[in-house]
From TrEMBL:
Residues 173-267 form the Peptidase M20 dimerisation domain. InterPro entries: ArgE/DapE_CS, Bact_exopeptidase_dim_dom, Pept_M20_glutamate_carboxypep, Peptidase_M20, Peptidase_M20_dimer, Peptidase_M20A. This is M20/M25/M40 family metallo-hydrolase. It comes from the Bacteria. It comes from Streptosporangium oxazolinicum.
Length: 374
């Protein structure tokens, strides 16, 4: 691959604001991806997912074999419009900086350059190679989730192009996430004249939050966070309603189920007479578990890395990505296959320039070797 070309393309992409709700900006990235895939002979499809979001871009190319390989990357960032101009792409020493430089514009380009290498060299042992560029990963993929799950269900292997960990590790497991909203209903009353006629929903919510906090560690690796609490309207009114927004993360499906049922039991057992709590579950993002198949993919990647004089390990992380969705439908999935970077979602987000060529080479070879598996 040509590193100068890659860096030119990276500067172009980082210079485009593409926050998740900036549909026009995301679609500019989509234009870039679609054009590159088209030049490489891919059949390109663009779909609108939700009206307020950009398009999902899907490229398909037939090869000479039978295995179906899915590459996942995302085009959106967490940054507001205007950030690209305020903090433009720059390099300093061995690092590049800019909004989305690591998460995930470098990974998206890694996929395009790996594909370009395979096509240019006639190394296409896969049955079908699919590259999916999603517009909404940073907000939990509300529009693209069904598309990614469907593509995952058709694939033999999924490779997610989030950048590698700061120490170069790949991602072999990701926690699943469930969002809960608990609505506590009480009864209003004058707090000074007749408080006994009220039922304080805020007090009931406080007891519930303490119980939820104690669920941390119920199962190893599980985290429970009551992050948003709203209650009451006036200090002289016994609070009639409270709302708690909670996030639960767990490394395995069974662990997530255990904690969700424990939260239901806590909510059903109000500590304040006259109050009751209702738990509403949002969409659940399944864990990406370190299955034997995923660990086999990791071992293959490590063998290839050794040939390239790299040493890599697999690491679990609490964050989620589109890889959770393909793993959730049972597709062997490995993540962290972009270049090395760090400080995602911050003003100091960076990319290790020296990692680009070896990581794209690793990805290219991994696609080829997985395609040749019997």
């Amino acid at each position: 691959m040509n590193l100068d070309d890659y860096l030119h393309d990276l500067k172009t992409l980082v210079g485009i604001d593409s926050g998740s709700y900036d549909a026009a900006g995301v679609n500019k990235i989509g234009d870039f991806v679609a054009e590159r895939l088209g030049v490489l002979g891919f059949d390109v499809e663009r779909r609108q997912t939700l009206p307020e979001l950009g398009d999902i871009v899907i490229g398909r190319r037939r090869g000479t074999g039978s295995r179906r390989i899915l590459l996942l990357a995302h085009m959106d960032t967490v940054f507001a419009s205007g950030t690209a101009a305020a903090r433009p792409f720059r390099t300093s020493g061995s690092r590049a900086y800019g909004p989305g430089v690591c998460d995930d514009k470098a990974g998206l380009l890694a996929g395009l350059y790996a594909v370009q290498t395979l096509v240019a060299q006639g190394r296409e042992p896969y049955g079908e190679l699919v590259l999916c560029a999603s517009p909404d990963e940073e907000i939990g993929a509300p529009g693209s989730r069904p598309v990614i799950e469907a593509l995952g269900g058709q694939a033999d292997y999924a490779l997610c192009l989030e950048c590698a960990r700061e120490n170069g590790d790949l991602v072999s497991a990701r926690k699943g996430v469930a969002d809960l909203t608990v609505v506590v209903e009480g009864r209003a009353a004058h707090a000074g004249i007749e408080p006994e006629r009220g039922a304080n929903a805020a007090l009931a919510a406080a007891h519930l939050i303490i119980g939820l906090q104690e669920l941390n560690g119920l199962v190893p690796g599980v985290t429970v966070n009551a992050g948003v609490i709203r209650a009451g309207s006036r200090p002289n009114v016994v609070c009639p309603e409270a709302r708690i927004e909670i996030e639960v993360r767990a490394p395995a499906v069974r662990d997530l189920d255990t904690v969700l049922h424990a939260a239901d039991r806590l909510a059903a057992d109000s500590r304040v007479p006259g109050t009751r709590a209702t738990v509403r579950r949002g969409p659940i993002t399944p864990p990406m578990e370190a299955t034997p198949e995923t660990l086999g993919m990791l071992a293959l990647a490590q063998a290839i890395a050794s040939e390239l004089c790299l040493q890599i390990e697999g690491a679990p992380t609490g964050g989620v990505s589109d890889a959770n969705l393909t793993a959730g439908v049972g597709t062997p999935t490995l993540d962290g296959l972009g270049p090395v970077g760090g400080d995602d979602h911050s003003e100091t987000e960076w990319l290790d320039l020296t990692s680009i060529v070896p990581r794209v080479t690793l990805l290219t070879t991994l696609i080829e070797r997985l395609s040749e598996r019997q």
